[in-house]
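Forwarding the complex inputs:
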Amino acid sequence: MSGLKAVFLGTSSGKPTLSRGVAAVALVLDGELILFDCGEGTQLQMMRAGLRHSRLKQICLSHFHGDHVNGLPGLLGTMTLDQHPDPVGVLGPRGLKEYFALLRRLGILVPRFPVSLREMGRDLSSLQGEHWAISFERLEHRIETWGFRFQEADKPGRFDVEAATSLGVPMGPLFGCLQRGQPVVLQDGRTVFPHQVLGAPRPGRSVAYITDTRPCEASLRLADRVDLLIHEGTYADELRDQAGARGHSTVVEAAILARQAGARALVITHLSPKYTDIRPLLDSAREQFENTRIAKDLMELAIEAHG
Amino acid sequence: MSGLKAVFLGTSSGKPTLSRGVAAVALVLDGELILFDCGEGTQLQMMRAGLRHSRLKQICLSHFHGDHVNGLPGLLGTMTLDQHPDPVGVLGPRGLKEYFALLRRLGILVPRFPVSLREMGRDLSSLQGEHWAISFERLEHRIETWGFRFQEADKPGRFDVEAATSLGVPMGPLFGCLQRGQPVVLQDGRTVFPHQVLGAPRPGRSVAYITDTRPCEASLRLADRVDLLIHEGTYADELRDQAGARGHSTVVEAAILARQAGARALVITHLSPKYTDIRPLLDSAREQFENTRIAKDLMELAIEAHG
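Prediction (whole assembly, two chains):
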């Protein structure tokens, strides 16, 4: 199965520090990039991570707080300077088109490649790529905010060369037909069907990106048995009241949600700049969900196929 | 005379590189900060330079190309999070108020301290601070762009203690009156006038910030006998045609302008990311104007009083 990894470009909440940029996570799939949020400095972090913006296909914005979007005009401006030729999709809350229209009118951002703007919360219910789909649901924050689930398309089962050969299929183009799910007719008139030579279909991998929000039912649906849950954990559990008041989650709440959703792994991001020692945060989260990590900038995580 | 320095926060044109951020220069005057342009990443560069945003009084935006303004929402957002209490002025081209209104409506930037927005090109002809004034003129770029001249207020001449004493002025509060320009009456009925005990007034220092533009008459006026001219030099002189077509200057054109304006010193900034070896650029500029430097990020330059 081809590579899929998450690269954490910015892991701070609210404002950047000298060690943590503001919100951005890249998913890298066969060299194709999908970006979730785009805080100030994302283009530089992509450079530092070796992620070429020429591969960028889709940007998904959770909400219009500055620490999640202020890097967008600069990134797309740089792509314009670099004569990016291909279309890029931007998915965001209502207001996205008005934002781009003003940036263009003022001269702040005048992209010279096709940018496809899609606003969530109207007719749109998911985004469909060639090899993946992205679905989204409203979260519970102070302003309109959305969580995302990236779902890779299922892949056909592995091709069993030995079975094909013993059924008399000659090596060559007929192998490819069977791999693509087409029955083939042999020279002796017999038909060989794909299920005779293919293993069970391999389910695609899934990643949920959920920030900024209180724990909620929508998050549970987005994170349902996901391979990787990326969830905010702005505060330590002592500050649960503050998290509640500000529409955020604690690291322990993130871990409980990962367990309830049956996620396979959890990475907590969007940490308040007040935390410099993350060990106690990690320990408290792992009491609820063992397979927890706390993100740091430029951390990469391969997402493995399961089953 | 109190300290005045320029701190170069971002010195690249168009897009950031790993060694140069996009446009921003801070003037630091008695701990008070004035910012010229605010490209993406300016708040982080201020942190690296040890410039506290709590001291920021005034931001001046030359124009609405993204590499000069994309750091503004993040900087002011961070100041909001940090509960900045004092008013901050933002001076920019027409469209500034519409820009802030949209950022506020979307939730990208909702400052919780007074922000005074002033648009150039209407009735406004200069900004007057307590100890300085900023004047501005239209430059010649692809969109509406402004150059600035910072002028420190003149200071009274030095107080001559010996002259005052020999005139019979007793040490004490009368010294202060004379220093503030008030005549004083001595116990014997004689009047002593300030000009009898003060040296010649000391002219305030001046800095011109001129980017992005072709060389023009407005620049000559802004830079007239200025203590420090900060001028763009996007290209080497071989690319003069490209500079002309894109509304920019070459490093040699910047140096010629410094000489023609009678500037005391020149710092060239806003370099195309294509130049990694700046030595040839510097050499070519110095043939026209000896006291030339080429900016690099986090460079600091003290501006000395003259005369």
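The first helix of chain B runs from residue 42 to 49.
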